[in-house]
Each structure stands twice: as C-alpha cells, then as structure tokens.
Amino acid sequence: MGLYEIMMKRRSVRQFEDTPISEDVIARFMDVVNNAPSGGNIQPISVILVQDKEARKELARIIGGQPWVKNAPLSMIFCLDFHRIKRWAALMETEFKGEKALPHFLIAYADLMCAAQNVVVLAESLGLGSVYIGTIQNNPDEARAYFSMPDCVLPMMLLCLGYPKSVPNTIPKLGREVITHREKYQAVDDEGLKRAFENKYGEMESQTEKYLEKAFIEVLEADKQDDQNWTARVKEEMKRLEIRNNAQFLFKVRYPSERMVRMNDGLLRSWKKAGFDFF
Ligand SMILES: Cc1cc2nc3c(=O)[nH]c(=O)nc-3n(C[C@H](O)[C@H](O)[C@H](O)COP(=O)(O)O)c2cc1C
Fold it and tell me: Which of 218, 9, 34 lies closest to 119 in space, CA to CA?
C-alpha cells in the first residue's frame, strides 16, 4: 500500500488489543519523532513513554477518564520542553527565554505536532492504530506532578497506540473543495456554507445513536469499554438544551462556548505554575 492509501485509510482507534508493542517498534517511533522538522532545529520536545499498567490508569484519570487511555498498551506524552534548552544555554553562558516568548512557544507546539503526526503515520503503516488525546492539556498540573516534569516542561499532547481491536468505519469530513482556496481566500455565501456542513454531517438524525456515530463516536466507544453512561448523559443534555442542528450540538453540548472561554484562566494559571509566563 502506498503512503497516500495508508494516510487515507487511517482512523482514530479507540479499541486496542492487549498485545504489547515491541521495543524495536518503539525505537522507530522515537526515531521519527527525533527526525521530524523543527523550527530552527532547536528540538524543544521530550516524549514520556507510558506502558506500566498503574501509570496508564492514572493517566486515564488525569485526562478525564477516556477508557482507551488505560487500555492502550503504549501512551506517548508529547511535552514541550524548554527545560533542557534553558539549562544548556545557561551552561554555555547565554540565555534562552522561550518560556516568556510566545513565538518560541508557538513554534515549539508546531514542532511537537509534526513529530507526533510522524508517529501516527508510521504506526498506521506498521498495522498499529492511534488516537490523540487533547484533554491532557486540561489538567497539566497533575500530569506534570505524576510524571515528574521539571519547570518549563508542559504536556501538550497525548498519543495512545496499540494494535486495533476495531476501527471506526467512516468519519465525516468536509469536502476537499471546501478547504481548498486557489491563490486567494474565497469566502462562500451562507447557502454554500450551510451546504458544506450538511454534506459533512447529514441532517440531524431522529435516531440519536446513529447521529452520535457520526458526530461524537467517543461517547459510544466509552460506553462499550466503561459503565459511566456517557451516551445517556449526552442524550439528556441534548434534550434539555433542545438541540436542533449539528452546530448547536457542537457548541452547546460538546464544547459549550462560554465554558471553553472560561477555561483560559485555568490554563494560563497552570502554564505560569510550570514557569511559562507570556502575558
Ligand atoms: C488535537 C486533537 C485532539 C484530540 N483529542 C481527542 C480526545 O481527547 N479523545 C479522543 O478520543 N479523540 C481525540 N482526538 C481524535 C479526534 O476525535 C479524531 O481525529 C476526529 O474525530 C476525526 O476522526 P479521525 O481521526 O478518524 O479522522 C483528537 C484529535 C486531535 C487532532
């Protein structure tokens, strides 16, 4: 299979076999992390490999209880790491101030995601599945404490990997033409815009389970692996808020807009605690 086919068949996987991942494969993952592009080739990242069962359980709790995190045989915590560079700079009688410089921070985060995506693609080509867990950003204090991260090290992304037990069929995406702009940005009219998202999600299904398969597969998966009644709670919320369309579902139920804005404060507080201070 060519690289295009591998990348086009990739889906986020949330059901993993217990089969461990060999040291040889892990070494290759770390090679493609290390060989990823990096702004200025500064390489401001570190990866913590988590395989221990107790640690996986704790990691799953820290990120908010998504069950595939404890079930995946390998988790890679991608950390933005200015600690190493700062110490090296000081030893070399100069100063690195990335923790106060937003441009350094943004480029480091871009580096980190380039490296993580290298692993995603390599994993897929080796028959493994993966899923990113962005909610590690919601609780950096606990993640930093549990995994002994020093000042100026921040967990920015988690990637869980393993041999897939099951892979989701299809996941709706926008049409290629919607995201493609030739030479200049071309804004669409309102009808075109609505059509683009309708084509992605389809009409709101009267059957909620079927709808969630397209719009929030995580809750269905979570209920298969855990007994926390995620689906029932989401359905309840949809009813309470009288959700009538996909956008309302996304920004009232799944990512309530006001709550998302309120999260800024906690995030900035945690970053400051970790030694990052841009504002
Ligand atoms: C930045 C980022 C954060 C994500 N966070 C989570 C997460 O916390 N839990 C999860 O199950 N999937 C997470 N995902 C996976 C997305 O849900 C998934 O990519 C999306 O539904 C599209 O499906 P696909 O990856 O199969 O194309 C994340 C993906 C990205 C890129």
Answer: 34
